Amino acid sequence: MIQIFKKTILWILFILVTYLGIGLVIHHFIIPPKMPNYTDYFKIGHSFHSQLEGLTQTITQVKQNELSTDITLQPQSKGPVVHIHEHFDETFMVKSGTLSMQYGSEIKKLHAGETIIIPKNTPHRPFNETDSPVIISSKMPLHFAYCLSQIYPFWDESEANTKPPNVIFQLAVFGDLFDSYPTENAPPKAILKTMKFLLAPTARLMGYKKYNEQYIPK
Question: What domains can you pick out in the chain, each with its CATH number?
């Protein structure tokens, strides 16, 4: 009986390892997910929105590797969760209103005409504590802006999509393109990166997509 149990466990492990290995090779190298051309995907004047974060990003400039947007934070908008970016600095310039920025352990207030640069790997969160909209100009890598434009409507479709396991599977298909890692009430960055890498093939089999045409900014 013990031998049968051991053999069963070994067969299960073999199947899991084989599935994982083949799935990772297919996902990452042989049949990568469908992706649009960024410069065709983004159009000046088009917008993408997040009801969850209380903001709208309107595209103002598209460069080869960078997207500029005007971000409107609604009154009393909480903005995103506190997070870091591993590979890029983020720039915010306030065009109107008073922006609150969690910067590390500080809360900074920025007024019209003021700019702040958030170095990579610095925890931050832009939000609006006022009763009026705040408009800020921002620059970010094209690939990261693409992921935002696809994840915002996914979150807004269902509250369940903002929580595990749904959100983890969706982030898994984005992989390292989605260079944003929460720093509060979340696993460490290294664990999140590993989870995304390993779960990507399963996420695709479950129907999660890297590119959803209905989410294109308009």
Answer: 21-38+144-215 (no CATH), 47-142 (2.60.120.10)
